[in-house]
Amino acid sequence: MQTNLFSFSSESSNKTKENVKVTEEKTKEQRESNIVFKLGDAFELIKSVEDNSIDLILTDPPYNDVTHLAYKNSLCYDKKLQLAREFKRVLKITGSVIIFCGFEDQFEWYNVLKQTGFIFKRQCVIVYENMSRKPNRNFIPQHESYLFFVKSDRYYWNNNLQNPTTVYKTIKVMTFNKRWLEYIGIPLEKIGVTPKPLKLIIQLVQLLTPCGGTVLDPFCGSGTTALACKLTNRNCICFEINKDIYEIAKRRLQMSNIEQFMY
Ligand SMILES: C[S@@+](CC[C@H](N)C(=O)[O-])C[C@H]1O[C@@H](n2cnc3c(N)ncnc32)[C@H](O)[C@@H]1O
User: Fold this and answer.
1) Is residue 256 assigned to a domain?
2) In what order do the strands lie in the sheet with 235-240?
3) Of residues 94 and 72, which shows the higher confidence score?
């Protein structure tokens, strides 16, 4: 497996900071973030991450869901368990895991993370308010879930962010997807990746990672986690196995007008 490394430091603009309502004091806001972005297999690359070095693992692995585009890449139970053990090794004692998952995956991720010693805190959902896909003789899917686990009761929690709830409401994902893929010149059909809402990922990063801390996303897709870290001055280590998607994420990270693509 080829492994490429893309690394840069950045400082986000004042306009962006206003838009994303970064809440930490100004001196901390002005720190630079360091994004380490590697092309390759997460199962191999995660071995190079230091023990007890990560504040938050925020990731959206391929779903084990026959209705999902990423089905062919889905992770079996043993693979999930292997990752859960690595998550335990690399996370600080104050660290958390946010994992997006399809319906069948939720039970497996819940089991492997519990089995590895993580503490389950909450299941949360993203609700898409204007879904139009009409399945035959079935309910229209309008939400996605993610699970929140912590390594210990000493987990970091930013009390400056007020009352985060289990529900995040936004617009349907493909509209946004098409717009930014068009903007950066990649045909939509080429890519089977669904970016998560950037505003939500920013909130999660701010809530669960101290300023200057480090987030790991081993399945980073279009780079939403890395972008959220760049905008909030957290460091990020992320991996992506697909060269086309890796290139998209790199370009997305270099875009200067991402404000218009937040939702
Ligand atoms: C559901 S997508 C993540 C989308 C992401 N949340 C975003 O906002 O764009 C999962 C990604 O994991 C990548 N992937 C699958 N298996 C992988 C592996 N073994 N190592 C690294 N990346 C992998 C896929 O190519 C895909 O881009």
Assistant:
1) no
2) 4-10, 33-39, 235-240, 214-217, 54-59, 91-101, 143-150, 119-128, 167-170
3) 94
C-alpha distance from residue 175 to each of 128, 132, 211, 243 (Å): 11, 11, 32, 24
Which ligand 1 atom is at minimum distance from the Cα of 225? 8
> For 243-258, what is the mean pLDDT?
81
The residue contributing the CA closest to ligand 1 atom 8 is 195
Q: What is the CATH number of the domain that holds 61?
A: 3.40.50.150
Give residue 203's domain range.
51-216
In a domain, 18, yes or no: no
Return the SS3 of 99. Answer: strand
Residue range 133-182, pLDDT digits in tens: 677 788 888 899 999 999 999 999 999 988 899 999 987 655 555 666 66
Number of independent structural domains in the chain:
1
Report yes or no on 29 lying in a domain. no
Pocket of ligand 1 (CB under 6 A): 41-43, 60, 62, 70, 73, 193, 195-196, 219, 221-222, 224, 239-242, 245
Predicted local confidence at residue 181, as pLDDT: 64
